[in-house]
Design brief:
Elements: H1 3-6, H2 9-13, H3 18-27, E1 33-34, H4 46-57, H5 70-84, E2 94-97, H6 99-111, E3 117-122, H7 128-134, E4 138-143, H8 154-160, E5 165-170, H9 183-196, E6 199-203, E7 228-233, E8 246-250, H10 252-265, H11 271-283, H12 285-308, E9 321-322, H13 333-344, E10 346-347, E11 349-350, E12 362-365, H14 370-389
Parallel strand pairs: 1-10, 3-4, 3-5, 5-6, 6-7
Antiparallel strand pairs: 2-8, 7-8, 9-12, 11-12
Helix pairs in contact: 4-11, 5-11, 6-7, 6-10, 12-14
This protein binds pyridoxal-5'-phosphate.
Length: 390
């Protein structure tokens, strides 16, 4: 039997993640220091863990409502209102999901017809284009520019919109660049989105990890709020990657459709994780802020370290990544990362894992302790010095 022939065209078409490919290589070596992983190095705050354990002890081990515990949805909506001034109805406009990942998937499935175009940013998070393709759509990339600090500009947006455009996926603060959109940046693109009448899937999973200007949700613009689907979750800000918990905020019509899909494919997000997250939203804001302060110190350290070694690196305003430009070394992103791994046993991710526009850059995660960052950047410095000596 030829099992390859059994595979669907859609599954065949999507490419394996460039991050995975690189880490498979790194995992075969001993003593590798990784700056590659996109997850907090902090353990989930104790109050969250305790609440989840308590829920299990109390026997709260059943499915919850499809959309998630109402108490949690109420807390999520209050949180978005309090922190980012956007209001949603917990009963009809909020769904608790299995991570932001599920949110991205069901938002696309709810919106995309075969052949619809969905604009994605390049460089951008690895799951977007495959998500578009799996839902039958066509991913249309916008090539962002280093000189704009990878912001979306009105010119680039206008060029990418066609009569077939159904939606755009935004992600600020950005993985992989750390790029950020201020309120003023959004003011320039909001009228274009309104006029085009396209949906905006706004992945705001790094919202809490904003270091300079206040984070601005694109859904806070009343004139396009109903066009927006906000995706967020607990993985990054609350250090809860393994718990698999996220949420979607959107207008009632979108929310109803996504709930329908969610009911069939998931039923409801994990109960213990929901009880933990509820506690997190109620009582862990201080810890979230402490983690943010710590990331900011690490960001400052990394930006200085890379610029000092001659790799131009802009100051990212959010997330926990820096995106140094390695063009001065004459190597491609892949070559740089492979040789660095070989020579110094330090793993970073080639910018090209996030799209062709990532060529000439590497993604460095600073979700590591300052001590680890010191050792790793010293090794990268030695590598760059060796390269410059030929
Ligand atoms: C931009 C972005 N969106 C979504 C996710 C997925 O998050 P979750 O763990 O909530 O599924 C990630 C994880 O790295 C991410 O970087």
């Amino acid at each position: 039997m030829n099992y390859e022939d059994m595979i669907s065209e859609r599954a065949k078409i999507i490419k394996p993640s460039g991050i995975r490919k690189f880490f498979d290589l790194a995992s075969q070596m001993e003593g590798v220091i990784s700056l590659g992983v996109g997850e907090p190095d902090f353990t989930t705050p104790w109050a969250i863990r305790e609440a989840a354990i308590y829920s299990i002890e109390k026997g709260k081990t059943f499915y919850t409502a499809n959309r998630g515990l109402l108490e949690l949805r109420e807390e999520i909506c209050q949180y978005y209102q309090r922190r980012f001034q956007v209001s949603y109805n917990p009963e009809t406009e909020c769904i608790v999901t299995v991570g932001g990942s599920e949110g991205i998937d069901i938002a696309l499935r709810a919106l995309v017809n075969p052949g619809d175009e969905v604009i994605v940013l390049d460089p951008g998070y690895v799951a977007y284009a495959p998500g578009v393709e799996l839902s039958g759509g066509v991913a249309v990339p916008i090539t962002l520019r280093h000189e704009d600090q990878f912001k979306l500009t009105p010119e680039l947006l206008k060029e990418a919109i066609s009569p077939k455009t159904k939606a755009i996926i935004l992600n600020y603060p950005s993985n992989p660049t750390g790029g950020f959109m201020t309120k003023q940046d959004y003011e320039k693109i909001v009228p274009i989105i309104k006029e085009a009448g396209i949906a905006v899937i706004s992945d705001e999973i790094y919202a809490e990890l904003s270091y300079g200007d206040e984070f601005c949700s694109i859904a806070s613009f009343d004139e396009i709020k109903d066009q927006c689907i906000v995706i967020s979750g607990f993985s990054k800000a609350f250090a809860m990657t393994g718990w698999r918990l996220g949420y979607i905020l959107s207008n009632e019509i979108f929310s109803k459709m996504m709930t329908k899909i969610h009911q069939y494919i998931i039923m409801s997000a994990p109960s213990a994780a929901q009880y933990g997250a509820l506690e997190g939203l109620r009582r862990c804001q201080d810890e979230v802020e402490n983690m943010r302060d710590s990331y900011m110190t690490r960001r400052n350290f990394c930006v200085k370290a890379f610029n000092d070694m001659g790799l131009e690196t802009f100051m990212p305003q959010g997330a926990f990544y820096v995106f140094p430009c390695i063009k001065s070394t004459g190597l491609t992103s892949d070559e740089f990362c492979e040789k660095l791994l070989d020579d110094q046993r330090v793993a970073c991710v080639p910018g090209t894992a996030f799209g062709p526009a990532g060529e000439g850059f590497i993604r460095v995660s600073y979700a590591y302790s300052i001590e680890e960052l010191k050792v790793a950047t010293e090794k990268i410095k030695q590598f760059v010095e060796k390269l410059s000596k030929g």
